[in-house]
Design brief:
The complex is a heterodimer of chains A (305) and B (266).
Chain A lengths: L2 E12 L2 E12 L3 E5 L6 H8 L7 E6 L2 E2 L4 H6 L1 E4 L11 H9 L7 H10 L15 H13 L5 E5 L7 H18 L2 E6 L2 H7 L2 E6 L2 E7 H5 L3 E8 L2 H8 L5 E7 L2 E7 L3 H10 L4 E6 L4 H9 L6
Parallel strand pairs in A: 3-8, 3-9, 6-7, 7-8
Antiparallel strand pairs in A: 1-2, 1-4, 4-5, 9-10, 11-13, 11-14, 12-13
Helix pairs in contact in A: 3-4
Chain B lengths: L1 H13 L2 H12 L2 H8 L1 H4 L9 H9 L3 H20 L2 H5 L5 H35 L5 E3 L10 E3 L1 H14 L1 H17 L3 H21 L8 H4 L2 H6 L4 H28 L5
Antiparallel strand pairs in B: 1-2
Helix pairs in contact in B: 1-8, 2-8, 5-8, 6-10, 6-11, 8-9, 8-10, 10-14
The chains are: A alpha/beta (305), B mainly alpha (266).
The complex binds adenosine-5'-diphosphate (ADP) and magnesium ion (MG).
Chain lengths: 305, 266
């Protein structure tokens, strides 16, 4: 497989505190890779280590096959990135900020500068000082800077953080468009599950510096099992009856009745069994199996991530 | 490398700090005429004319306005950019940390050179305007009577003056390396400015109080141009050059080491 990014056994401590613990993952060409974790999980620290802004205690990073410690210039050449928040020389115009970056790559022409300004919709304001820009405009300028060197992979650290709903939609659509039309690989950190569901094809979940799961988003959404709520007035009888049923893997008594985890598609079967044994079933409803629930199960955390 | 330097010079001109310093230098150039008006110059029996004004001005500004220019610039270029998150921008491209530091110091040298030239030309113009051109170059230390003044014929005087300005880049940039080191150590440009200016004042006083160590202080090197052109003491001059070079190279290497090790977390 064609790995654009390979991270192996990355660790980092700050003042004896281990904030990144043996993290390994790969990102393939064309992925929109979601790096999901609550605040303080270590997402930004990992991006910084990938980009050599901070030094890892151990582990290796390869971008487009080049080791970032041994071959930094080659590794970084086709990378675009916004780390933490987009930062600019705010006393310069957007155009000047882009020229500053263009000057670092011999192959970037003035035409390319205008092209990216056009692409993010800042052409009309390109001559204005960045300090007059709204947060949304700054985020778009950040993306322009990240794209200017025609990167194969773009790192975005919480790209929709702090934006208004309109801005959030714009940025998400922009990412989807760039991934689809230009085949750019994305590595996106976020603490918002919905964002991963919307724009990512793969996800890795980070908790307290450790990766606790990584998979295709669709796999995590369509698991073999499903969760249903059985609303009944006789939960204990139902529990007794269902104890021996093979396709049921988990049960829990709740005020409304039972919560049951069972093999996918067998809820009708379950209903029949209950009714034929004289247990009154008011109704059966699916307990929505979203990534959010999976995330909460995995992290054992609260919904408020 | 050329483009990196170009970027840094461009940014320096865009921050308008250079304009502010040019304005301050302009105002400073009225000081001699102010002293003239107050009668201080006549009282001290000093002959000042257009050909000597730049030399007097350099002697005065080398220990305050120029070092402060270096401090303010580096606080901006290093600490300010780090705190703003803009220092990392170049480092997310094929630019090594050593190259970035080097480019910044070369850019600062170039801009300092421009400021010195500006100051030189301005002092010649204003000195001549106020005092007249005069018939020869004549420089006196504050407590020196006129018959011991350092005197050069006009052409030689111009050569001495220009050389003094250009030579001053050396101690100022060596001083800049110390400031660079400190700028990498702290995360607030205000703190850097405060500590550095404090350091200059402290070292100047220290040199006056503990005279044996004076030749080994960086601030003593500021006036190295006087070692050759006023004192005409070649041994003292070479000593000062050596001390200054040790400071400059030592602190640049220390800065490179520090910067390469540093975790950039802004
Ligand atoms: N420079 C630093 N010094 C000390 N601790 C840090 C530093 N940077 C980050 N941390 C700590 O590392 C942990 C991970 O931080 P971070 O990577 O910013 O998380 P995230 O981006 O997932 O919110 C946090 O506990 C944070 O306090
Ligand atoms: Mg973060």
């Amino acid at each position: 497989m064609n790995n654009v990014l390979e991270v192996a056994n990355l660790s980092k401590s700050f003042n004896g505190n281990r904030v990144v613990n043996d993290v390994s993952f790969q990102v393939e060409a064309g992925d929109v890779f979601g790096f999901l974790g609550p605040n303080g999980a270590g997402k930004t620290t990992i991006i910084r280590m990938i980009l050599n802004l901070i030094h890892s205690d151990s582990g290796t990073v390869r971008i487009n096959g080049y080791d970032t410690k041994k071959d930094f210039n080659k590794a970084i050449k086709s990378v675009g990135a916004i780390v933490e928040k987009p930062s600019f020389h705010d006393y310069l115009s957007a155009y000047d900020n882009l020229v500053q970056i263009a000057n670092l790559h011999p192959e970037i022409t003035n035409r390319r500068v205008k092209e990216v300004l056009e692409f993010v919709g800042l052409r009309d304001r390109a001559g204005d000082k960045v300090k007059t820009y709204s947060l949304g405009m700054k985020q778009r300028l950040g993306i322009a800077i990240a794209l200017i060197n025609k990167p194969t992979i773009v790192f975005l650290d919480e790209p929709t953080n702090g934006l208004d709903p309109q801005g959030v939609i714009e940025i998400r659509n922009l990412i989807i468009r760039l991934a689809q039309e230009q085949g750019i690989t994305f590595f996106i950190t976020t603490h918002i599950l919905h964002e991963v569901e919307q724009i990512c094809n793969k996800v890795a979940i980070l908790k307290k510096g450790k990766l606790i799961a990584q998979d295709y988003v669709t796999n995590l959404l369509n698991r073999e099992k499903e969760l249903i709520q059985v609303h009944t007035n006789q939960p204990n009888e139902a529990l007794n009856l269902l104890q021996k049923v093979k396709y049921i893997s988990k049960m829990e008594v709740l005020p409304f009745g039972l919560k049951v985890e069972l093999d996918k598609g067998l809820s009708v079967e379950l209903n029949k069994l209950l009714v034929s044994n004289g247990i009154g079933v008011n109704y059966i409803v699916p307990d929505n199996q979203t990534l959010e629930q999976f995330f909460i199960e995995l992290t054992g955390g609260s919904k408020n991530v | 490398m050329f483009n990196l330097i170009k970027n840094e010079v461009y940014k320096m001109f865009k921050t308008k700090k250079i304009l502010v310093f040019m304005l301050i230098i302009f105002v400073y150039n009225f000081l001699p005429s102010l002293e003239q008006a107050m009668g201080a110059i006549d009282e001290a029996e000093i002959i000042i004319n257009g050909q000597t004004t730049p030399f007097y001005m350099l002697n005065f500004m080398i220990s305050n306005i120029f070092p402060i220019f270096i401090i303010v610039s580096l606080a901006d270029m290093i600490t300010g950019e780090y705190a703003n998150g803009t220092l990392k921008l170049a480092l997310l491209h094929p630019v090594s940390r050593v190259k970035l530091l080097t480019a910044k110091m070369i850019a600062l040298t170039l801009v300092l050179f421009c400021i010195l030239i500006f100051s030189l030309v301005l002092s010649y113009a204003m000195g001549t305007l106020i005092f007249g051109w005069g018939d020869q170059f004549s420089y006196q230390e504050p407590d020196q009577v006129i018959k011991y003044a350092t005197v050069y014929p006009t052409i030689e005087g111009i050569y001495v003056t220009i050389s003094s300005y250009v030579l001053s880049i050396l101690p100022l940039m060596a001083f800049g390396m110390i400031i660079l080191f400190m700028a990498l150590l702290f995360n607030s440009s205000g703190v850097i400015a405060g500590i550095s200016i404090g350091l200059v004042i402290f070292l100047s006083i220290l040199g006056g109080v503990v005279e044996p160590i004076q030749p080994y202080l960086i601030v003593d090197g500021f006036s190295m141009f006087k070692d050759i052109f006023v004192l005409k003491d070649m041994t003292a001059f070479l000593n000062t050059i050596l001390v200054t070079a040790v400071y400059g190279i030592g602190f640049f290497l220390a800065s490179v080491y520090l910067f390469r090790k540093k975790d950039l977390t802004y």
